[in-house]
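Design request, tokens follow.
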């Protein structure tokens, strides 16, 4: 179905991606939304990566422009909103796709304090600051859709406690924002990803452990109930597209698992 976001204005946070042979979530989301008729501001801390995503969209005939910004800085969100207002006069959709892990994370008895602070700041504080910045405009216009990219780690795991806590916080942030803003016509939902074949996941694990990327893929895929294979960034993007679109106009406060059945398996 073409044009599901026709005429919509969208900000995608984390629209660049870690270099790798596959596509990342932010880039896939940006490209899919543009294919469906949206004009997209591609935001990333790495301006070159954001610009590359915007150029890929424009090469397909879509509309996009890039913006360099660090969402952990309180000035970034308001500046983005002003840019959106100057260009469109409104903002229809915000997708929050920034998240990090590793670098000193681990089980509670091994987690390093600096890693905890860094991961919680990037994964939770940055998301809250951006949502806080866009809500006044969305509330004033009486409509808006926010989609947060979360993870199955928010309800499962045991070896990355900072990352797991951050994603649990993202889930609760999602439901809290949904409840507080439903009366103003603003929806907020999340996509809880399972094991995905993205550059950040596969290349990151490969580099950290010294394993061959194909071995990492095989091991991760074997854990997935549905087909014994990981999903990819396009699966994340399709879920985000549905939640952002008018097809989900009566859905808010949902954390949607996109995990090949992993969260349904207990024990």
């Amino acid at each position: 179905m073409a044009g599901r976001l026709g005429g919509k204005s969208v900000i995608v946070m984390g629209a660049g991606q870690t270099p790798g042979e596959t596509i990342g979530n932010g880039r896939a989301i940006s490209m899919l939304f543009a294919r469906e008729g949206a004009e997209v501001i591609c935001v990333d801390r790495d301006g070159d990566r954001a610009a590359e995503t915007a150029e890929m969209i424009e090469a397909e005939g879509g509309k996009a422009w890039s913006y360099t910004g660090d969402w952990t800085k309180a000035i970034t969100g308001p500046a983005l909103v002003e840019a959106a207002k100057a260009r469109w006069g409104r903002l229809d959709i915000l997708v929050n796709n920034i998240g990090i892990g590793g670098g000193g994370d681990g089980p509670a008895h091994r987690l390093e304090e600096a890693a905890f602070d860094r991961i919680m700041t990037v994964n939770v504080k940055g998301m809250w600051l951006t949502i806080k910045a866009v809500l006044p405009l969305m509330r004033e216009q009486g409509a808006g859709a926010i989609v947060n990219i979360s993870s199955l780690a928010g309800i499962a795991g045991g070896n990355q406690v900072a990352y797991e806590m951050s994603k649990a916080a993202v889930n609760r942030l999602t439901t809290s924002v949904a409840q507080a803003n439903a009366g103003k016509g603003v929806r907020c939902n999340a996509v809880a990803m399972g094991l995905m074949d993205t550059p950040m996941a596969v290349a990151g694990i490969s580099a950290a452990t010294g394993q061959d990327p194909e071995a990492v893929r095989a091991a991760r895929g074997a854990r997935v109930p549905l087909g014994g294979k990981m999903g990819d960034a396009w699966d994340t993007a399709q879920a985000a597209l549905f939640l952002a679109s008018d097809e989900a106009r009566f859905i808010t406060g949902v954390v949607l698992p996109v995990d090949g059945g992993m969260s349904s398996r207990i024990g």
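Comment from the thread starter after seeing the answer: thanks! The beta strands are 9-13, 39-44, 63-68, 93-96, 144-151, 186-193, 255-258.
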